[in-house]
Design goal:
heterodimer, A: mainly alpha, 2 domains, two-stranded antiparallel ribbon, 15 helices, B: alpha+beta, Alpha-Beta Plaits, 7 helices, 5 strands, elongated
Chain lengths: 415, 196
C-alpha cells in the first residue's frame, strides 16, 4: 500500500508546485513577449534576496489564502461550492494513469531499507505512474477530462449571472465540439499502437524509434489544436475571455475557490502537454535511451525522467507563446474550425492511418525496411493534400455581417 | 434603415491568398514575431535601482528653478508674466522695489505650488529674462503639502543643485534672431534708465 501512497504524495506535491510555478512562467513569458521584465522582485521573505522573482508563487498563494472568501447572495450555494471542487478533483484524478516518468530500477526499495518483496506491488522495476498497467488509460483520461466541463458549466450556472452563464454555455459547446477531433486523433494513435495503455503507447514509439508525430503529422496537428481548445487556452479561451465576459464562469468567485479554478486550468494545460508528449512526441524516449524496462539503469531511468519533463515543459512554453501570438477566435469561427476543418481532417487522418497500417502489415514480408519509408512519405503527402483540400473547401469566415444580397429586412438603426 | 440603403458603404474584406488560406504560414509568422520579442532587449527601467535616461534635458519639464545672474542675484524682475501665463495659478509673486540699480522691481517672495503645477512649461516660455526654467528633475516627492510649496530660496537652491549638470538654457539654445535680441536688450536696459 505504501508505494501508491508515496507516488500520490509526490505527484500531488509536484503538480501543485508545478502549477504555481507555471503561473510565474506564464507571467514571465507574457512580460518578455511584451518587452517587459516580468515579476523579478519577490525572493526569500524578510530578506533582500530576490532570486529572479522565484518567491512570487508563494506570495501569490498567501494572497489568495488571505483574501476574503465572498459568496454573493444570489448564487446557488451548494452548486457554487461544488463546481471548483469537482473541476479540481477531476483535473487531479486524470494524473492517476499518466506516467510522469518511465520506471525506476527495483533497487529503489533498498534505498529506504525496505525489502522489495514486502512493499512492492509488482515484480521488477517500479513504474512511475500512480496506477500502473491500466489498460483503459486513455479512456479514463478522456472520461475525466469531460467531467471538467461540468465544473465550468455548474460554476457558470450557480453564479446566477449573465456573463458567467454565457461562459458556461460557450464552454459546453466548445469542449463538446472539440472532443470529436480530439477523439479521432487519439483513435489513430490507438490504431497504430494497438493499446489504450499510455505506457504501452510510449513503448511502441520507443521500440520502433519512430514517434507518431512522424507517421501521423495530420493527427498531431489536429490533436494539438483540439488540445488547445480543450484546455481553453488562447486562441480558444472563449469560456473565460476577460474582455467580453469579464472572466466568464469564474466571475463571481473569490479567494480559495477562485484559486481552485485557476489551478485546475493550469492542470488542464499540463495534462494536455503530457498527452501531446506521450501520444505524439515519444514520451520519455529519445534516440539512445530505448530498451526494455527490466534492464534500465539508474542513469537511464533519470535520463528518461529528464527527457520527458523537458519535452512537457517545451510544449507548455509553446502553449504560452502561442497565447501572445494569436487573437481569440470569434465563436462562429471557432465552431466552423471544429466542424468544417478539424473533423474532416481527423477523419482523413484516421482512414489514412488505417490504410497505411494495413498495407505495411501486408507488404512487410515483400518490402522489408521500405514499408516504413513508404508509409512515412504517404502520410506526409496525405497531410499536405488534406490540408490544401480543407483550406480551399472551407475558408475561415472573415465577415459575419448581414449579407446585403440575401437580406432585405429592416436592420435596427441602433445596431 | 434598409440593408440596401445607398448610404451604407459595404466594404469588402481583402481576398485571401494561398498562404493565408493555408493558415500555417500566418501562424508561423505570428510565432516568429512573438519569439523575436521574447528574446529581444527589454525596455523596462527598474526605477529605484536604475535611473531613467532623459534624452534631452533642454525640453524636459520637471521641477522649476529660479536662475541667478552673474553676481548671484535672482534674475527675476517680478514682471508677473509667468504668473499670468500659468493656467494652474500656482505661481505667487510678491514684487517690491529693487535694491539694485539695473532693475525696478525684484521678487521679495516667489512661491510655486508644485502640487498645483501641471508642468506645462508656459512660465518658462513667458519669462522675458529667462529667470524661471524647468529642470529635468523628475522625482519630485514630499511628505506634506507645505513641503511641496517651493519658496524663492528653495527654487534658487534647485538652480544651485542643477546648474553644473544643466546650464542655463538661454546660453544653449540656438542664437535668437535679431528682433527678439533687440527686445531682450531693451528689457534689460530700460529698468536701469528708469531707476536712474
Amino acid at each position: 500500500m505504501l508505494e501508491p501512497l508515496i507516488k500520490i504524495a509526490v505527484l500531488l506535491g509536484g503538480l501543485m508546485t508545478a502549477a504555481a510555478y507555471f503561473v510565474l512562467l506564464e507571467r514571465w513569458i507574457a512580460a518578455w513577449v511584451q518587452d517587459r521584465l516580468g515579476p523579478n522582485r519577490v525572493g526569500v521573505p524578510l530578506t533582500r534576496i530576490r532570486l529572479f522573482g522565484l518567491g512570487q508563487p508563494m506570495a501569490d498563494g498567501g494572497k489568495f489564502i488571505l483574501k476574503e472568501e465572498y459568496t454573493p447572495a444570489h448564487v446557488d450555494k451548494r452548486l457554487f461550492l461544488l463546481a471548483p471542487i469537482s473541476i479540481l478533483a477531476a483535473a487531479l484524478a486524470v494524473f492517476a494513469v499518466i506516467p510522469f516518468g518511465s520506471v525506476l530500477p527495483a533497487s529503489v526499495y533498498t534505498l529506504f531499507g525496505q525489502d522489495a518483496a514486502t512493499v512492492a506491488l509488482t515484480e521488477g522495476p517500479v513504474p512511475l505512474v500512480v496506477a500502473p498497467g491500466v489498460d483503459v488509460g486513455l479512456l479514463y483520461v478522456f472520461a475525466l477530462s469531460s467531467i471538467a466541463v461540468y465544473g465550468v458549466i455548474v460554476g457558470g450556472w450557480a453564479s446566477n449571472n449573465k456573463y458567467s452563464f454565457l461562459g458556461g454555455l460557450r464552454s459546453s459547446a466548445q469542449l463538446i465540439s472539440y472532443e470529436l477531433p480530439l477523439g479521432l486523433a487519439i483513435l489513430s494513435v490507438v490504431l497504430a499502437s494497438g493499446s489504450l495503455n499510455l505506457d504501452e503507447i510510449v513503448h511502441h514509439q520507443a521500440d520502433s524509434g519512430v514517434w507518431f508525430i512522424f507517421t501521423q503529422p495530420l493527427g498531431f496537428v489536429v490533436f494539438v489544436i483540439a488540445a488547445f481548445a480543450e484546455a481553453a487556452r488562447l486562441p480558444f479561451d472563449l469560456p473565460e475571455c476577460e474582455q467580453e465576459l469579464i472572466g466568464g464562469y469564474h466571475t463571481e468567485y473569490t479567494g480559495m475557490k477562485l484559486l481552485l479554478f485557476l489551478v485546475a486550468e493550469f492542470l488542464h494545460m499540463i495534462t494536455a502537454a503530457f498527452l501531446i508528449v506521450l501520444l505524439f512526441l515519444g514520451g520519455w524516449h529519445i534516440w539512445g535511451l530505448a530498451g526494455p524496462d527490466e534492464q534500465v539503469t539508474w542513469v537511464g531511468a533519470v535520463g528518461r525522467l529528464i527527457v520527458l519533463h523537458l519535452k512537457v515543459t517545451g510544449v507548455i512554453v509553446f502553449f504560452m507563446v502561442v497565447r501572445w501570438s494569436w487573437p481569440r477566435f470569434r465563436f462562429d469561427q471557432l465552431m466552423a474550425l471544429a466542424w468544417k476543418v478539424m473533423l474532416p481532417l481527423g477523419m482523413i487522418n484516421l482512414v489514412a492511418v488505417a490504410i497505411f497500417e494495413e498495407l505495411s502489415l501486408a507488404l512487410q514480408s515483400q518490402l522489408g525496411g521500405w514499408t516504413l519509408a513508404i508509409s512515412l512519405l504517404g502520410s506526409w503527402l496525405v497531410c499536405l493534400a488534406a490540408w490544401f483540400g480543407v483550406a480551399y473547401a472551407t475558408p475561415m469566415i472573415g465577415d459575419n455581417r448581414v449579407r446585403k444580397d440575401i437580406h432585405t429586412y429592416e436592420v435596427d438603426p441602433q445596431i | 434603415m434598409q440593408a440596401t440603403d445607398p448610404d451604407i458603404r459595404w466594404v469588402e474584406p481583402p481576398k485571401l491568398g494561398l498562404g493565408e488560406r493555408m493558415y500555417l504560414p500566418l501562424f508561423l509568422q505570428g510565432l516568429t514575431t512573438t519569439t523575436k520579442h521574447l528574446v529581444s532587449a527589454k525596455v523596462t527601467v527598474s526605477y529605484p535601482d536604475q535611473e531613467p535616461e532623459i534624452n534631452n534635458p533642454l525640453i524636459y519639464r520637471g521641477v522649476h528653478r529660479l536662475n541667478r545672474d552673474e553676481q548671484g542675484r535672482v534674475k527675476c524682475v517680478a514682471c508677473f508674466l509667468c504668473a499670468t501665463a500659468c493656467p494652474a495659478h500656482c505661481i505667487d509673486i510678491l514684487g517690491v522695489e529693487s535694491p539694485w540699480e539695473d532693475r525696478e522691481k525684484y521678487p521679495e517672495s516667489f512661491t510655486i505650488d508644485e502640487l498645483r503645477c501641471i508642468f506645462c512649461g508656459m512660465c518658462e516660455q513667458a519669462c522675458p529674462v529667462d529667470a524661471i526654467e524647468l529642470t529635468s528633475l523628475y522625482n519630485l516627492t514630499g511628505r506634506s503639502r507645505e513641503e511641496m510649496i517651493f519658496d524663492k530660496e528653495k527654487l534658487l537652491s534647485v538652480y544651485d543643485a542643477t546648474k553644473d549638470k544643466e546650464p542655463m538654457k538661454s546660453a544653449q539654445l540656438p542664437p535668437v534672431t535679431t528682433p527678439s535680441a533687440t527686445t531682450s536688450t531693451a528689457t534689460s536696459t530700460s529698468p536701469t534708465e528708469g531707476g536712474a
